[in-house]
């Protein structure tokens, strides 16, 4: 962009080449790699149960609307806890916040596995656990992301975030087929697997310690009325027209894109696909994310941020329509592959345009504010999709989602601030490490 989105960008006085000789490679940063491994285990478990939850609910109730309601409850809990999570991680020890929230996820998911062992699983229990796991997510996510920033040099942050995108794709690649396979063996196994993943993430948070010298200063800042309180992040991002357009467009993307997994599971179930085949189809998203992680540096160099964002979202519109027309695990996997190709570039784009420009004392609230506004689309989209699947079928539901996303894209394309947006002045230096990110992850 032609100007800084938000205040707080550090001034660099050394060249990239000088810095590279002083900072060890990211692969040797044991604290980051420990957090990465723990988070990968937890995320793999989440993707495994993302297959298992709708399969269990459909088996218990036979109602896609109820499966959609589960997704709505879980996502709504995440959204409602977003702003409080930002306030908490700005005020208190971020490691303690992550450990506490991760413990909630371990206990909640373990209760499902235990209930299966006792033969007492009910839809109500599934809804409660979904709400608890969803509510814990913003606390874990915000605390972990800010911890990563404290253990990674600023010059390696793009590389670290790109490796994080690979983490998500690896988890999405392994989780769904594992979830489908484990569900086919015994219904409790995906939930037991997820419990172990959350436990490993909990251990990684306990092992990695950071310098908390700034915690007291953050606490004092947050306690003051002058910083805007819990809504400081919302106020800051909403004052910038470009950032506002980005966040609103991603709200529409979440509303139409987040329910695609449920749509694919439902359609394949209707087609009589086995649980392992459904899990296999979900790996299309993961492969798309992995391929997209390798495109981050190239896309960021060739396109301005607004052009890149609009192009990616417009392509998703067409792919959502296509998802309602194809059938079979392989074709659905191919469409899901396409929907994820541009997502890693958008994720890193958010960090470059917004999160790196914010002072540390309000970074947690800014991060969770952005995620909250964008995340509002997830419960709305998921809950609506359940009803659409019930009453208009798979093809009609996809057409409605595509129409909603097309409207959001058209609105964003008319915003002059988004079309004219440029990368921040320090983006070239910050992105210098992105090329090595893929290698560091392998």
CATH architecture: Up-down Bundle
End-to-end CA span: 32 Å
The total of beta strands comes to 0
**Quaternary form:** single chain
Strand content: under 5%
Number of domains: 1
Helix content percent band: over 70%
- Major beta sheet summary: none
CATH class: Mainly Alpha
Low-confidence stretches: 1-20, 216-226, 426-442
InterPro entries: MFS, MFS_trans_sf
Membrane topology: Multi-pass membrane protein
Keywords: Cell membrane, Membrane, Transmembrane, Transmembrane helix
Organism: Streptacidiphilus alkalitolerans
Provide structural commentary.
The chain crosses the membrane at residues 35-59, 65-83, 188-208, 245-269, 275-295, 307-326, 332-355, 367-389, 395-414. InterPro entries: MFS, MFS_trans_sf. This is MFS transporter. The chain has 442 residues and is an all-alpha fold. The two termini are 32 Å apart. The relative contact order is 0.18. It has one domain (29-208, 230-432): Growth Hormone, Chain: A, CATH 1.20.1250. It has helices at 16-22, 30-61, 64-80, 82-91, 94-118, 123-151, 157-185, 189-207, 215-223, 232-239, 241-257, 260-270, 275-293, 296-302, 305-323, 329-340, 343-353, 360-375, 377-391, 393-413, 416-419, 427-430, 437-441. It contains 23 helices and no strands. Helix 11 packs parallel to helix 15 (305-323).
Please provide a brief summary of the model:
By secondary structure, the chain is mainly alpha-helical. The protein has helices at 16-22, 30-61, 64-80, 82-91, 94-118, 123-151, 157-185, 189-207, 215-223, 232-239, 241-257, 260-270, 275-293, 296-302, 305-323, 329-340, 343-353, 360-375, 377-391, 393-413, 416-419, 427-430, 437-441.
